[in-house]
Amino acid sequence: MRLAAAGRDVTLLEKERYPHHKVCGEFLSRETVEYLGVAGINPLALGAATIRFVRLSSKQRVVEAALPFTALSLSRRALDAAMMARAAESGCELRLGALVDSLARRDDVWLVQLRNGESLCARTVFLANGKHDLRGWERGRGAQGDLIGFKLHWQLAQVQIEALREFMELFLFPGGYGGLSLVEGDVANLCLVVHRRVLRRIGGWTELLAALLDDNRQIRQRLQGAKALWERPLAISSIPYGYLAGGVSSLWRVGDQAAVIPSFTGDGMSIALHSGSLAAEMYLAGAGAEDYHRRLHSQLRRGMALATLLSRAMVTSVGRKLAPLCLSLFPNAMRWIAASTRIPERYLLAKPAE
Hints:
It is built from eleven helices and 18 strands. With 354 residues, the protein is α+β, with helices and mostly antiparallel strands. Strands 2, 3, 4, 10, 11, 12, 13, 14 and 15 form a nine-stranded mixed β-sheet that branches. The protein has a three-stranded antiparallel β-sheet with strand order 6-7-8, with no helix packed on it. A hairpin with a 4-residue loop joins strand 7 (109-114) and strand 8. Helix 6 (205-215) crosses helix 7 (217-223).
C-alpha cells in the first residue's frame, strides 16, 4: 500500500485463491492495531474481541494479570481479507492463486516463475511468504526450531465464553504451550506449539489434545463439551522461533521471512507490519536491502533473545512449574515480559494516539 501510494507499480502474488485460516494466535497488540489503523483497517469494525487480561495455567495452578495495553483478537481469515481488499483499493495489482515456484536474479532483474508456467520480472522483490520457505531461499532453523504448531477453532458453551471474555489464556503442558482466546463471533481460537519429539512419542493430534486436557485442568474446563468447528486442526512444521534475518542480501525479507518471535509474546503480527512499513520507507528513501536488514536486526534482537529464552524455558518441566509460581509472587512480571519483548517505542513508524 505504501509503495503504491508513492507511485510504484506493485504486483502482489498470493498463492491462495481466497482468504483462509492460518496457524496463528490471532492476537492483535496495541502496536498491531496502530499499524492497521494507518492501513485504514479497524479490527473492531470487523468484529474483533477485546483482550485486557492474561491468565496463565499449568496443571492445577492458575494466575491472572492485567495486560499493559488493551489488545484485540481477530481471525486471520477476516484480517487477511480486509488487508487484501485495502491493497487492491490502494492501487496494487492483486494476483490470487499465483504460486511462486522459483525466484532468481539475473543482472539487475528478478525473475519469478509461477506454477502455472507464467513468468514475471521485477526490479525489486519483497519476500513475504510467512513461515513457509521458498525453495532456494530457505532461512535458518532459528534458535528454537524444533516446535510444531497446531490451531483449531471451537464453539464453547455460553458460560465458557463469558469466562474467557477479555482474557488471553496461556497454558503450559509437557513439551509445549499455547493460547486460547475469543475472536469474532465468540468463536474460541486454540493455538499451541509442541516439541516434535513429544508429538512423535505421543502419537498425533488426537493423543496430544487428550494429554493436554488431562494435564491442564483450566483448559479441560474451558473445552469440556465444546464443539470443534473444523474436522481437523491446521498444522505447521517446523517453526523457526528466534530466527532474525541478517547478512548481505538484495532481497527484502518482511514478516516471518524477516523475524519469527515465539508466539506466546503476541508480538508476531506487529513485527510483521513493522517490518513491511520499515522496508517500504527505507526503499522509498533509496536505502538498500542490506541496510534494512541491519536496522531491523538491531531493533528486534534484544526482545527476540529474551522471548526465545523464555520460550525454551516454558517447554521444560522446571519452567512449567516455576512460571505460575513466579507470576503469583511477582504480579508485575507479566507486564514486564510483555513490555520487554515488544518493538521499542522509539522505532515504531505508527505512533499510538495521544
